[in-house]
């Protein structure tokens, strides 16, 4: 599964009445493909998957696959804390034509490492699609240990991990103990450059919705050995990364997209929207705009 340096975890656009707005979704897809996204993740947390019904997830995935039309890989978020449901959603993603799936560590029921291995290995045995694991202790409470990820990487169709533990030490351990064909992606935009420096592949990004091309410039500078440029780009982007997580995701990034003129609507309860002038994002955004010449 070659998903590139930046895979954008796409927000789900809503209408004023709270339904999925497919016209806005089509516009958003074109925006992302023109602005640095090498692949798209659909029905992830950034897409407000906890508030989407199974039917909505299926319809949205089918729509995105059709609009993208093989221009970039489309990865479906199909994991949950219910193994049977995860298998069902993974099979549906395969039926609909997804290029791969992303499976989050089960949340709330807090499985141990043995349970995590059993959960992911069972799902992998039920599909031919390539799989990206998703380790995010801040949301799922459990941390999938490097040793477990290393063992799972030996399963042929488990190809990558989105690592959102925040631990570069953990990521380095995974990288050093897995084959070159297994890819480690950052789940935190702010760790994109540090992860590249220790051998990671890239990022499953939220910030790429608004600064995808600038992030690609940073990655290119690093790969070309222009380390001072890469560091400057990282330093310039860092306050924006932080502002995009100043409230529950995807509240800030939807606000930022709307400021860019890419209308995505609001968020579904229990999340609530920003209001103009009522949050710290505006100041950070305006300051970032004044520094955009750095990327020219």
The shape, in one word, is globular
Q: What is the tally of beta strands?
A: 8
Describe the largest sheet. Answer: 8 strands, parallel, barrel
Distance between the termini: 32 Å
Helical element count? 12
Radius of gyration: 18 Å
- Protein structure class: alpha/beta
The overall average pLDDT, rounded, is: 96
Order of strands across the main sheet? 1-2-3-4-5-6-7-8
Strand content of the residues, in percent? 5-15%
Helix and strand pattern = EHEHEHEHEHHEHEHEHHHH
How much helical structure, as a percent, in the residues?
40-55%
Identify low-pLDDT runs. Answer: none
Q: Could you walk me through the main structural features you see in this protein, from its secondary elements to its overall organization?
A:
The protein is of the alpha/beta class and 296 residues long. The chain has twelve helices and eight strands. It has helices spanning 22-34, 54-68, 83-96, 113-125, 137-140, 146-152, 168-176, 192-197, 208-223, 227-243, 251-260, 281-289; strands at 6-9, 39-42, 74-77, 100-104, 131-135, 158-163, 183-186, 202-205. It has an eight-stranded parallel beta barrel with strand order 1-2-3-4-5-6-7-8, surrounded by four helices. α8 links the parallel β7 and β8 (202-205). α3 runs parallel beside α4 and α9 packs antiparallel against α10 (227-243). It starts with 5 loop residues before the first strand and ends in a 7-residue tail after the last helix.
């Amino acid at each position: 599964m070659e998903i590139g340096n930046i895979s954008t975890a796409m927000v789900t656009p809503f209408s004023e009445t709270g339904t999925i707005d497919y016209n806005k979704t089509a516009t958003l897809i074109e925006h992302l493909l023109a602005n640095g996204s090498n692949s798209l993740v659909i029905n992830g947390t950034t897409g407000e998957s906890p508030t989407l019904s199974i039917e909505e997830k299926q319809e949205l995935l089918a729509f995105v696959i059709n609009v993208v039309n093989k221009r970039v890989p489309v990865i479906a978020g199909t994991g949950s804390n219910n193994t049977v449901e995860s298998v069902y959603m993974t099979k549906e993603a395969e039926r609909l034509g997804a290029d791969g799936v992303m499976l989050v560590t089960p949340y709330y029921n807090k499985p141990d490492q043995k349970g995590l291995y059993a959960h992911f290995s069972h799902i992998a045995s039920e599909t031919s699609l390539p799989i990206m694991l998703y380790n995010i202790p801040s949301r799922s409470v459990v941390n999938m240990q490097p040793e477990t990820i290393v063992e799972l990487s030996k399963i042929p169709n488990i190809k990558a991990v989105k690592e959102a533990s925040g631990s570069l030490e953990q990521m380095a351990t995974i990288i050093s103990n897995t084959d070159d064909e297994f890819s480690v992606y950052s789940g935190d935009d702010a760790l994109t450059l540090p992860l590249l420096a220790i051998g990671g592949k890239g990022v499953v990004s939220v910030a790429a919705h608004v600064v995808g091309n600038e992030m690609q410039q940073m990655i290119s500078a690093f790969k070309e050995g222009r380390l001072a440029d890469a560091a400057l780009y990282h330093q310039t982007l860092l306050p924006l990364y932080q502002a995009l997580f100043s409230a529950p995701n995807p509240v800030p990034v939807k606000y930022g997209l709307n400021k860019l003129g890419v209308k995505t609507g609001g968020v579904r309860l229990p999340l609530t929207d920003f209001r103009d002038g009522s949050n710290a994002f505006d100041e950070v955004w305006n300051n970032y705009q004044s520094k955009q010449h750095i990327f020219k």
